């Protein structure tokens, strides 16, 4: 669950770093790393910093990254166990 008292989290793509970031205010709270090749985005690793744990930011990050991939018409391969598990719980995001 996100912290309702703080700023709303925002997911941004950082293609120069091959990752999506979830920002809380001006702080990077988590990252979803990926590779991109010929219309396929492969999510390889996702992490949320310990001090931001327990706020549901991993889910916010997964949803934002997958929404961005879908909006660009990319095929998705969830090699990252967290992203794969999140998709299983949200079948509307199944590749």
From TrEMBL:
SUPFAM superfamilies: Acyl-CoA N-acyltransferases (Nat) (SSF55729). Residues 12-95 form the N-acetyltransferase domain. Pfam families: Acetyltransf_CG. PROSITE patterns: GNAT_YJDJ. Coiled coil: none annotated. This is GCN5-related N-acetyltransferase.
């Amino acid at each position: 669950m996100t912290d309702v008292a703080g700023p709303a989290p925002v997911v941004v793509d950082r293609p120069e770093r091959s990752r999506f970031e979830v920002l809380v205010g001006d702080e990077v709270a988590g990252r979803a790393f990926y590779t991109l090749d010929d219309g396929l985005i492969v999510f390889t690793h996702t992490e949320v910093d310990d001090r931001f744990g327990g706020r549901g930011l991993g889910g916010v990050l997964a949803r934002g990254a997958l929404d961005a991939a879908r909006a660009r018409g990319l095929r998705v391969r969830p090699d990252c166990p967290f992203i794969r598990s999140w998709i299983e719980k949200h079948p509307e995001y199944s590749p």
